[in-house]
Amino acid sequence: MKKITHVLPLLVFCLFALTARSQQVSDGFEKQYFPPAGWSTAHVKGAHSWETSVDRPNNGLMSAFINYELIDNGDLGEGDNWLILPRVYSVQSGDKLNFSLAAQFKELLSGSYYENLEVRISTTDANISSFTNTLSSISLSNYATTYNNYSLDLSAYNGQNIYIAFRNHQNQGVGMFLDDVGVTSKLSSDVGVTGINLNNDAIIPTGTTMNISVTVKNLGTGSLASGIPVKYSINNGTAVVLSTGVSLTTGATTTVNFTGANAFVPSTPGDYLLKVYTDNTTESNRANDSIYYTIRVRTPKSSFPYFQDFTNTDDWTTSGSAEFQFVDHINNAGIDYNVSNPAGDKNKAALAFTYNSYGENFYLRTPLLNFTSVSKPLLNFYVAAGFFDNTYYDQLQVVVSVDGGVTFDALPLYNKSNITNSKLVTVSPPTGLFYVPNAPSNWRHEIVDLSKYAGLPNVMVAFKVTSGGANNVWIDNVEIVNQVPSLYTSVNVTTAGQTVTGAHNTSVKFNTIVAQDTVRIEGNDATPPNKNNFDINTSNTSPDGSIETPDFVFDRYFTIAYSGNSITRASYDISLDITGLPGLFDANKLYILKRSDQTDAWVALTTTKVGNILKASGLTNFSDFAIGLHGSPVPVTVVSINGHQQNNIIQLKWTTSQEVNIDKYEVQRWDGKDWAALGSVASQKIAMQNQYTFEDNMPLQGMNLYRLRITSEIGSVVYSDIAKVQFESSGNRVYQNVPNPFRNQTVIRLDIAKQALVKVLVYNTAGKQIAVLDNSNRQPGTYLLKWNTGNIPAGTYFYKVIINDEVQTRTMLKIE
After folding, report:
1. Would you give the distance in Å from CA 772 to the centre of its chain?
2. Which regions in the chain score pLDDT beneath 50?
3. Proportion of the chain above pLDDT 90, given as a percent
4. Following DSSP, what letter does each residue of 453-468 receive, concatenated?
5. Which residues pair with residue 771 across a beta bridge?
6. What pLDDT shows up at residue 76?
């Protein structure tokens, strides 16, 4: 299998500088934006296109690159891709096309399967169909991976304007690097931008003042006076204009600085296209005037915890000489391999494809992180890694940048390979098969302390993988938290039998260890993320021997990681102290719960209890832990509930104690057949003891019965005692219909003080009677009259209520 090389700009701060000679075309591909200004590409056939690479430049930091086609994997095979130079004006006798070329791999390809680079000429335009003249065809069969320099004579096109194209034509896949392309033909008047001071791969925070320094060079044979306009624009908008302050002899350079009011200050996140260019209108060659650059502006993440499972990569970026991939499966030789994440589900993970790819560097970079209000930032992640054999060693480091990913601190916060004391490798895949994680047990949970960077505004964390040609490194389920320092424990485990104690008297006893390394315990007095997800329990017992599936988790959980786990796992027991858990519950029915992380379901472990200590034994992989049970603790005590009549309403009052995790209180009234909901009051959630009130604006005549339906945050329900409140109306009363406006049905309430003849009539706006809702003798009491409107049209209606000789009229509105 050939190695895969897919490259992005190198993370170094540098001035973009062309390997420039005084000529019309001169490019070493040192700019971040590709293709360079005036150049173009055409993708005809194959899996790849021309791009830039930091993997093997001839000079400077970068080269143009076309990756090999994956014919040996059955994917697309033949390649046909074009890289087209800017127009060359007025070719002179003796002019040359100069360039350097190297093969990606040194291989002898049998039969007619060979690679070549064709150099073609067009005298009309840059359409690939116009490149009918072949200047040279260079075969890469058995070609050296070191650069060869070429100089091709252009004299046949003396006096003409021409276009030059490099056509990559592949039949089986070698790939090539192209660098230092130049055409020696030069004009008397020719000036252009050859460099800017921006970094290749920086992420810029919103609000950053960006001072832009531009290098301008005289590329022609004649001298240039000062005052040449130099401009920059953002997203092709209005240009900011300065000019050169000195005259330039042939080959001379000067710098123009856009600072102060002329600097660029991005106020919103996004990708901005920066164009920097000279605007000398008297010259004919404008192709080398410009440099394009993509400015990546992001708003730093400031809300923690922050979680990423790579379903959506958000503002994450990749860089290095090879690129992380985000995949949920890999197809190899027609076989599809699904990725199993730490929860055991098929889901995307980040892959550094190190298999047979020796020497590559992969960077997987978080978004910018604002730690100004964070006292103890911690990085949680899962890693899975295979190995080819004992001679191939991949390396994983966690490194940090405070300048947007331009540079990373030299001292990594985490550093593992297969030759460190604690091994990077987590599984032993079959020899010769590239590794894809296929079970939760393939993954190891890691916690890295980022406290060194607490209080800083623009932090970027990167997973750096250096390939030793081993068998792939996978990263998944990354979380960055703001840990309470007093609830965090980090202890080095040196011997079997050692016990480590953390927050809330949590303890981990190691029965066996793989290697001396650190166990880290995060305690959390909070609601666990995704707390209400449980696996069915059919065998594991609680302390009283019962077998139940928990459906409630207390607001206290722990995240534990042990870096010493490798192919062999440590064995340990965990103990959790239930002292101080809120609510009333049967402690003998509690379970210790375990899950890989917040994407996983809670699993009930067989749990024993001594005093207030719960214990689960014989565990291996580390993860999240909590305490749960089936049902829920009684979350509140209603100390009292009562009510009284105020004029024509009833006001209810109730007082609570031990109020924990309550969602709402629904007020219900007995209607003679069932309990009907009148409305609800949200829990105050601010104290163990609270007072509440509720008004019944339409109480029934006589005795009213009320109760509270109390719902907890997990959906469990309890009911209060019943409150009885007598209501006596002071006289006849007609209420506004409810609801109003209404669609198909509404209700009119009447309070009758003494026996009376009652009529309720409905009229339209023309005064026509359209319904009779009541015409009868009524005893004292409360009556609810329902009107089902049927097919009458929407509009305004009136209802007239006649109680003996007393008449009252109300207006109501029907809507569509």
Report:
1. 63
2. 1-22, 71-76, 108-112
3. 58
4. GTT-SSBEEEEEEE--
5. 762
6. 44
Predicted pLDDT of residue 106: 60
Please give the C-alpha separations between residue 527 and each of 428, 534, 554, 615, in angstroms, as whole numbers: 37, 15, 7, 22
- pLDDT at position 200 is 62
Predicted confidence at residue 495, as pLDDT, reads: 95
Distance CA 207, CA 672 (A): 66
Q: What is the pTM of this model?
A: 0.67
Tell me what pLDDT residue 34 has: 86
CB atoms within 10 A of CB 692: 18
| Distance of alpha carbon 692 from alpha carbon 358, whole angstroms | 69
Amino acid in the structure at residue 195:
G
Site of tokens 């009148």 = 678
pLDDT at res. 470: 85
3-state secondary structure of 140: coil
Task: Give me the pLDDT at residue 674, please.
Answer: 86
- Which residue matches tokens 């995949």? 327
CA 396 vs. chain centroid, Å, equals 21
Tokens 């209080």 -> residue: 455
Question: Identity (one letter) of the amino acid at 215?
Answer: T
Instruction: Report the C-alpha gap between 147 and 96 in whole angstroms.
Output: 18
**Greatest extent of the chain over all pairs of C-alpha atoms, in Å:** 121
- Residue 380's contacts (CB-CB under 8 Å, 6 or more residues apart) are 445, 446, 447, 477, 478, 479, 480, 481, 559, 561, 597
Cα(231)–Cα(497) distance, integer angstroms: 70
Task: Classify residue 786 by burial, with Cβ atoms within 10 Å: 0-12, 13-18, 19+.
Answer: exposed
The DSSP code sequence of 573-584 is: EEEEE-TT--SB
Q: What is the DSSP letter of 697?
A: S
Fill in the amino acid letter for 570: A
Q: At 731, which amino acid appears?
A: G
- The reported pLDDT for the residue numbered 671 is 86
Decide: helix, strand or coil at residue 498. Answer: coil
Q: How far apart are CA 616 and CA 571, in angstroms?
A: 12
**How many whole angstroms from its chain centre is CA 463?**
15
pLDDT for res 702: 85
**Rounded Cα distance, 280 and 242, in Å:** 12
Q: How far apart (Å, rounded) are the C-alpha atoms in residues 548 and 546?
A: 6
> Can you tell me the distance from the alpha carbon of 354 to that of 537, in angstroms, rounded to the nearest whole number?
40
Separation CA 135–CA 576 (nearest Å): 78
Other C-beta atoms lying within 10 Å of the C-beta of residue 730: 9
CA-to-CA separations, 208 to 235, 238, 266, 519, in angstroms, rounded: 17, 20, 7, 40
Side-chain-side CA neighbours of 797 within 13 Å: the count stands at: 26
**DSSP 8-state code for residue 529:** T
Calpha distance 330→779 (Å, rounded): 80
Tell me if 409 sits within 8 A of 417, measured CB to CB. Answer: no
Residue 412 phi, psi (nearest 5):
-70, 150
Report d(CA 699, CA 718) in Å as an integer: 24
Cα distances (Å, whole numbers) of residue 177 to 29, 100, 115, 617: 11, 8, 13, 58
